[in-house]
Design a protein that fits this description.
single chain; alpha+beta; four-stranded antiparallel sheet; 37 helices; 26% strand; A-sol_ELP1; tRNA binding; cytoplasm
Length: 1287
């Protein structure tokens, strides 16, 4: 489908290089050398003579070969006498090589790598080294078969196979194509040599006598005939094959640079074909290139083998034809008419440039580029004199197929252009043929002849308006009226042009010059003005241009030879292969095999603030990362629908593929959903397998509000089911479709419950459908909604199915007529839908849970259960006379034991079976709720109490025994639970006498004392007799450090004789000494830890400074003492920061390790500072606890007369609290510095990606993990417990 576009041409004035003998190309310096009889002329790409070298080879024969040796920068001329002249292109020095002097040279060729020279003599074929030493010397007319000659022997040979009479006759018939014919009248009998591109093989074409196969049929025929013959040789001069004879072979040869093909033309029966041979000597294919009314001058492939040039001469006019192949179809893509040419040859490095020189001495070159001609998915493909038109919107037909063909006769096409006005063709004979575009079809408009001669080959044909086209010729731009052929010079630019375009919106013209600068001017103003936009490379490289007119803004596109996409002078992407323009966006395929798209609105935003090109975004450029679509390697975008979603790609093999990429599909879906065109949207989603959650996620509230319209539009159960079963809680506008909803990233996430909300809304919409027939058609969607409930509402689905069957006026059970006609009932059809998603066993259990045995029978029969299994079960259930008892047994079958309990509770005569059920399935808690308020509640409570007692839940057992009225067992349970108050209450209900209660309380008190539960012991002694047990009460409160209560109890009974006061003094004195010791010990530990922490922080600050000064070369891990595990195992520390960066980024594992080491304050540990902070936090908490106790202990000491002890304790506590408060400020400063951060440095400066990076300004890390130890503990310094009387 690609055409060849001539995007640049240039030529010298006539007679610049007259009497040229040969031409050689220096591609590296873009110079072309011409050999004349007395001098060598060098011409540059600006068409000016650059240099001239004098030489003279008179008396040395004629010039056979003339080549440029780029590695030595010399010109090599080989003469027929064997003399070799080497001309330096630097100073023109001529050196004579005489190794072949006296040898009659008639032909030859340098290998493409310039490492070997093939020289042909009348009977020899010689291979010379670069020093012109003969390495090989073989016979030119070698008779033996080649090494790779195709051999057919035995049963593999066609001659030995049985093919019948017709096959025998066909085998014996001589193929006229393989009969060596007479020489072509234009054959000059030259020996031709052509190399393959890798310099490993070459082909030689010679004229020689060959056996005449027609002699056997016609005795009068000559035994031998002269004909051209091909031989394939290796670089080592080993004959590979002798090619099959070909009738009418012409004296032209070209070996394909890549692959194994050789091209030779032949003429037979007035037609010219091009035959392609393989290296084994067999012909592979052939195709017709025209009539035999012309002479073939040369055939040649460009360097990358994509274009085949055929140089023809007809009636004194030379034609250059450019052929390409796609999908096994050879087509003539472009043709030029020239005055008679001396030679035309491809550039040795650039596959696009062709050099030529005329007999009259005019040198020129042209450059071609393959590309698509597409507008609004109408593809125009050139094939000789035919123009193939393919409408991709109807069918993406690959070449050589097409929808319509336009014929221009036998003349080839030079230039073409498409626009909304139609199609214009400039033929090689300068006829301008135009077609009008009507209803997506081209109809003939006009055909005119351009009569004014042009100085150069025209390029860049463009429509200017509906009746005129324009083109570039050097620096001139001409306009031609397509109706009468009148030509008009529009402008003569100061520079040579390569592209132009006229904007019809404001009559402005735009031009791109060779230096990459853009110019513009309005009609009537002949002085073009430079635009601010300039491409950063020469326009020679930037040629595939386009101008997008947005009304008030123009965007200048260009694609250069390095595949850079340039837009308004900015490099948008580094590797773009093809581009397709639409009305609102453009698409590109990249060399990284990605398909990207960008709207013009988004492009304008980026042009306002161009993003920087970095190594990270080199793959996607200005396009959003991840927004592309992977395509097959070598794919090219041909066209795309501007108002649709289809994109048409051509594969490397030539076939077409249609894709609907997400970046085209999702915006279209957004428009459809926003316009409430739900059916169109869901159909497109199903075809392209797009997540249907987008229907809801696009606008949840709007979807729920319009769910009835959604159901009515879709009206398809399959589509509704796909939507429902595809629902999930994820918001697709924040996940898979996030690039298309960038505004959602900064908004709060939607609440959960999306699936339930949507399913219930659809369910209601379906069930509220008034038309029964319509409701039945989409009712399976309602069943799907039941299944989306959590848990799945299978039972509810069956119950609703029963109601729907009833509403339809049908019976639940399948009728005999339905069974005979094999037409399932409504209920069975809907049950079949449920079977797709629910297991058969689960369906039957859900049917039983409806407690409708007829419904359960229908389900069992539909799911093909064994009647021997379900019929006895249903009969046994039917036999139960009590409905509650029947439901109980159904629940047992489906193993719903809680529901079974609820149902059997209604059968009061089955209480014993109910209790067994409770015990068997451990339903004690449920039973209490079910039987609450019922007759048998006390019995159930007794059962539950016994169970609690057996599991040592004594408190619950006592409560339940009381509920059952069994106070004696409740008394035992309370005693086991050590619940004094409940025991006393139950004892009074039994009732027990007072002495028995007193004995039990005494036992309680003793047990409390043994267990260290001093407060409970004191309270129990108070219940016995507070005065008789005053010393015990006071002593136990004191032991519990409940000093206020102990003192209060003593003061409430001042006249009771007891040893309470001495015991209280003893406990208070002991506690005074303990607290005093603890305060001093805590302060010492605080001071020790704080001093060590200060040292660690100073060392850490010093290490960070050294690290920054040495740019990360300090061994951070070594500067911190390694952990005990590393030291013990002998593991060496990490040597430098690069090795530290390779440490695992498993954050969870490291955090677990840190938490384990927080309590480790061993000196030298990596986490020693964290351990110190943890220890200090605990010490401050202990001091705070002591302060709370002092509020009661100090008044108690004063009340007991221990004034000196109280004063000493208060004074010491005040000193400790103030000193600790000062240390607290030092340990936890208000403003953090890097050395205040706890942990090893390699963890402090580890970034999110696990890499440790050198600190920046201020030495603070890029992120800080907020350890709990970073926050100071709460510490009361108000001394509210202090007694002024003790100061």
């Amino acid at each position: 489908m690609k055409n060849l576009h001539i995007y640049r041409s240039a030529s010298t004035p006539p007679d610049t290089v007259t009497d040229v003998l040969a031409m050689a190309v220096d591609a590296a310096n873009e110079l072309t050398y011409f050999a004349l009889r007395d001098r060598i002329i060098a011409v540059g790409t600006d068409m000016n003579v650059v240099n001239t070298f004098e030489w003279d080879f008179d008396g040395l024969g004629h010039l056979v070969m003339f080549d440029f040796l780029v590695d030595e920068m010399v010109l090599c001329a080989i003469l027929s006498s064997g003399e070799i002249l080497l001309v330096s292109t630097n100073d023109g020095t001529v050196n004579l090589e005489t190794e072949l002097r006296g040898v009659d040279i008639i032909g030859g060729a340098w290998s493409p790598d310039l490492g070997q020279l093939i020289v042909v003599t009348p009977d020899k074929l010689m291979a010379l080294s670069r020093e012109f030493v003969v390495d090989y010397d073989v016979d030119l007319y070698h008779a033996a078969p080649g090494k790779e000659q195709l051999q057919t022997i035995g049963w593999g040979a066609r001659e030995t196979q049985f093919q019948g009479l017709a096959g025998k006759q066909k085998r014996e018939r001589i193929d006229p194509d393989t009969v060596p014919g007479g020489l072509n009248p234009n054959d000059d009998r030259r020996v031709l040599v052509s190399w393959r591109g890798d310099a490993q093989y070459f082909t030689v074409s010679t004229v020689e006598e060959r056996p005449n196969p027609l002699k056997a049929e016609d005795p009068a025929a000559p035994a031998k005939v002269e004909a051209r013959h091909l031989r394939v040789w290796s670089r080592d001069m080993e004959l590979m094959s002798q090619c099959e004879p070909l009738n009418g072979m012409e004296p032209v040869l070209s070996m394909r640079p890549t692959g194994n093909l050789m091209a030779v033309p032949r003429v037979r029966d007035g037609k010219r074909d091009l035959w392609l041979y393989e290296r084994n000597g067999q012909w592979r294919s052939h195709f017709t290139v025209g009539d035999a009314d012309s002479e073939v001058v040369s055939v040649g492939w460009n360097i990358d083998s994509t274009v085949l040039l055929i140089h023809l001469r007809r009636n004194g006019v030379d034609l250059l034809q450019f052929w390409t192949i796609s999908n096994y179809d050879w087509a003539l893509k472009a043709e030029t008419e020239n005055q008679k040419l001396l030679t035309a040859k491809w550039d040795p490095e650039s596959p696009r440039r062709l050099h030529f020189v005329t007999i009259s001495g005019q040198y020129g070159f042209l450059e071609v580029e393959p590309g698509y001609n597409s507008r609004d998915c109408l593809i125009v493909s050139i094939a000789g004199g035919n123009v193939r038109v393919t409408d991709l919107t109807k069918a993406p037909m690959p070449p050589p197929m097409f929808h319509a063909v336009l014929s221009s006769g036998k003349t080839g096409v030079l230039l073409l252009t498409q626009s909304k006005y139609g199609l214009a063709l400039l033929l090689s004979d300068m006829r301008l043929v135009t077609y009008r575009l009507e209803n997506r079809e081209y109809t003939p408009l006009s055909s005119v002849k351009l009569t004014n001669p042009l100085a150069q080959l025209p390029i860049n044909l463009q429509w200017t308006n509906e009746s005129a086209v324009s083109f570039i010729c050097g620096r001139d731009v001409f306009a031609v009226d397509v109706l009468n052929g009148n030509e008009k010079l529009i402008i003569t630019a100061p520079k040579q042009l390569v592209y132009h375009r006229r904007s019809p919106s404001n009559d402005a013209w735009f031009f791109l010059a060779v230096d990459g600068s853009w110019m513009s001017f309005a009609d009537g103003n002949m002085s073009p003005s430079l635009l601010a936009v300039k491409f950063p490379v020469n326009s020679v490289d930037t040629h595939r241009c386009n101008i997008v007119d947005l009304g008030n803004r123009y965007i200048l596109f260009g694609l250069n030879r390095n595949n850079q996409l340039l837009i308004d002078g900015h490099v948008v992407h580094q590797a773009v292969g093809h581009i397709s323009y639409g009305s609102d966006a453009f698409l590109v395929t990249t060399l990284h095999h990605q398909l990207f798209a960008m709207s013009y609105d988004r492009l304008l935003e980026l042009l306002a603030a161009p993003p920087k090109q970095t190594a990270k975004n080199s793959v996607f450029g200005w396009f959003a990362e991840g927004s592309g679509r992977a395509v097959e390697r070598g794919s090219a975008v041909v066209a795309h629908e501007s108002d649709g979603v289809r994109v048409f790609l051509q594969m490397p093999r030539g076939n077409l593929e249609t894709v609907e990429p997400r970046f085209r599909l999702v915006p279209c879906l957004r428009q459809l959903i926003g316009a409430k065109r739900y059916r169109d949207a869901i159909v497109m989603m199903r075809r392209q397998r797009v997540d249907m959650n987008l229907l809801y996620d696009h606008d949840p509230d709007a979807f729920i509000a319009n769910v009835v319209e959604f159901v009515e539009q879709v009206r398809n159960a399959d589509l509704l089911n796909l939507f429902i079963f595809g629902l999930n809680e994820a918001d697709t506008t924040r996940t898979s479709f996030a690039p298309f909803y960038p505004d959602r990233a900064n908004t709060p996430a939607p609440p959960s419950g999306k699936v339930a909300r949507t399913a219930e809304a659809v369910l209601k919409a379906v069930l509220d459908t008034k038309d029964i027939k319509k409701r039945q058609k989409i009712y399976t969607a309602a069943l799907s909604c039941f299944l989306k409930r959590e848990p799945r509402g299978i039972k509810e689905a069956f119950l609703d199915m029963r109601e729907q069957v009833k509403a339809a006026g049908e019976v639940l059970q399948q009728t005999n007529e339905q069974y005979v006609n094999q037409t399932p009932s409504l209920f069975r059809r809907w049950t079949k839908h449920l079977r797709y998603f629910v297991k058969d066993g689960e369906l039957f259990q859900a049917a039983l849970q409806t407690y409708d045995l007829e419904l359960a029978y229908e389900v069992a029969d539909e799911i093909n259960m064994d009647p021997r299994e379900f019929l006895p079960l249903l009969e046994s259930l039917k036999a139960k006379d009590n409905d509650a008892y029947r439901r109980y047994h159904i629940d047992l079958v489906v193993e719903d034991y809680e529901a079974a309990l609820e149902h059997i509770a209604d059968a009061e005569d089955k209480i014993d079976e109910c209790i067994d059920h409770i015990k068997r399935h451990n339903l004690y808690s449920k039973a209490l709720i079910v039987f609450n308020g019922k007759t048998n509640y006390n019995r159930i409570a007794q059962v539950c109490a016994e169970n609690a007692l057996s599991q040592r839940r004594h408190k619950e057992a006592g409560l339940l025994f009381e509920q059952a009225g069994d106070y004696l067992n409740a008394l035992k349970a309370h005693e086991l639970a050590m619940n004094v108050l409940d025991y006393v209450a139950a004892a009074r209900r039994v009732p027990l006498d007072a002495p028995a209660i007193q004995r039990s309380l005494t036992v309680f008190a003793l047990k409390f004392e043994q267990q260290g539960r001093y407060v409970q012991a004191a309270e129990t002694y108070k219940m016995l007799d507070v005065e008789a047990n005053l010393s015990k009460v006071v002593e136990n409160f004191a032991r519990a450090q409940n000093w206020s209560t102990a003192l209060l109890e003593y003061n409430l009974h001042p006249f009771v004789e007891s040893d309470a006061r001495p015991k209280l003094i003893k406990e208070a004195s002991s506690r005074y000494r303990t607290v005093l010791s603890e305060l001093r010990s805590h302060l010492n530990e605080i001071n020790t830890h704080a001093a060590r922490l200060e040292i660690l922080r100073a060392e850490k600050a010093k290490t960070v400074e050294e690290w920054v000064e040495n740019e990360g070369d300090v061994d951070v891990a070594q500067s911190e003492t390694m952990s005990e595990a590393s030291s013990a195992s002998g593991v060496s520390s990490i040597s430098n920061i690069s090795r530290l960066s390779r440490m695992s980024a498993a954050q969870a594992k490291r955090r677990k390790n840190v938490e384990r080491k927080k309590k480790n304050v061993k000196q030298g540990s990596q986490y020693e500072d964290i351990g110190i902070l943890t220890a200090l936090t605990e010490l401050f908490a202990k001091i705070s606890t002591i302060q709370t106790e002092l509020a009661e202990l100090l008044p108690t000491l004063v009340a007991l007369g221990l004034l000196s002890e109280a004063r000493e304790l208060q004074k010491e506590a005040e000193r400790v609290v103030k000193a600790a408060a000062d240390r607290r400020v030092e340990v936890w400063p208000r403003y953090l510095k890097p050395n205040n951060l706890p942990g090893p440095l390699h963890e402090i400066y580890r970034c999110e990606d696990g890499i440790i990076r050198m600190p920046g300004e201020g030495h603070m890390p890029t992120r800080i993990y907020l350890e709990d130890e970073l926050f100071p503990p709460k510490f009361d310094t108000n001394l509210s417990w202090k007694l002024k009387a003790l100061d």
